Amino acid sequence: MQIASLFQKNRPVFSLEIFPPKRTGPIDTIYKTLDSLKDLEPDFISVTYGAGGNAADTSTADIAGNILHRYGILPLAHLTCVNYSRHEVEQILERLKEKNIKNILALRGDINPDIPPKKEFSHASDLVKFIREKGDFYISGACYPEGHVDAKSLDEDIEHLKAKVDAGVSHLISQLFFDNAYFYNFLEKARKNGINVPIQAGIMPVINKAQIERMVTLCGASLPSKFTKMMQRFEHSPEAIREAGIAYAVDQIVDLVAHGVDGIHLYTMNNPYVARRISDSIKGILYA
Ligand code: FAD
Question: Which residue's CA is the closest to the ligand 1 atom numbered 20?
C-alpha cells in the first residue's frame, strides 16, 4: 500500500518513527519496543537509516521487513544516499524488494566532515529519480518548516522541495519543530508554490534536556520562550521534564489537528512509554 493513499481517510494520519539499535547492541531490543508500539495502531512505522556510509548495514531493511511481516503494520524504510554509489543503492533497493517493502523515505543524509560524499547523489531529488527508474516503490521525502540548515532561505529551500516533489515524491514528513507558527507559515508557502502532496508534521516529545539540546544543534529548530521556560523550570527533575515534554507535545498536536493538519509523525526515540502517553491523549482528537 502506498503511504500517500492513507491520507484519503477522513482524519489525520498518525505514524511513529523508530531507529535501529546501535550495531554494538542486541537487535532484539527494537522488537521489545515494537511489541509495545504495535498496540498504538499507527497507520505506519518508519525506520531511520544510519548515515555512516556502510551499505552492508541491513538493519533498517530487516526491521522494516519485520514491521510488515511480524506486526502487520505498514513500514516506511528511510534511505540516505550521500555516502553511496549507485551500485550500493541498487543493492539496498534489492534488499527492500526482497522484503516486500514498497515505501521509502528518500533522503540525502547529513554530510559528515569525516566521510567525504561519494558525489553520485548530491541531493535527495537525485535519489528519488534513481529509485523511480528502478520502479516498484512509493517515495516519501523530508521537509523543513524553518528551512534546511544548508539553505540560504526558506524560499530557496521550498524551491528545491518543489523540484524534489516533482521528481516523484508523493508524501512529505517534516523536521521536528516546537513552534507551530513555523509549520503553518511553511505550509502556506509550500501550497502557494504548488506542493500539493500530503505533509505530515514531525513532533518530537522532550524526554530529557541533553536529547533536546543535541537535536536542536543538529537541526536548528527554534525554541519558543514557553519551551525554554519549561526546560529551565524542570531540567533538574527527569520525571517532571518528561511529563512537561509529553504535555507540550500533546498541546502542539491538538493545535495542529485543530488547524486541519494532514498527519502527525511522532519521533518516538524508541520510548514506548512516552509514545503511548501521547497516543492515549490524542486518540479521541484524531478520530473526532
Ligand atoms: P535534500 O532534499 O537534498 O536537501 C538538502 C539541502 O540541499 C537543502 O538545503 C536543500 O535546499 C538543498 N537542495 C536540494 N536540492 C538542491 C539542488 N538541486 N540544488 C541546490 N541545493 C539543493 N538522516 C539520516 O541520516 N537518516 C535518517 O533516517 C533520517 N531521517 C530523516 C527523517 C526526516 C523526516 C527528516 C526531516 C530528516 C531525516 N534525516 C535523516 C536527516 C536528513 O538526512 C538531513 O536533514 C539532510 O541534511 C538533508 O536531507 P534531505 O533529504 O532533506 O536533503
Answer: 160
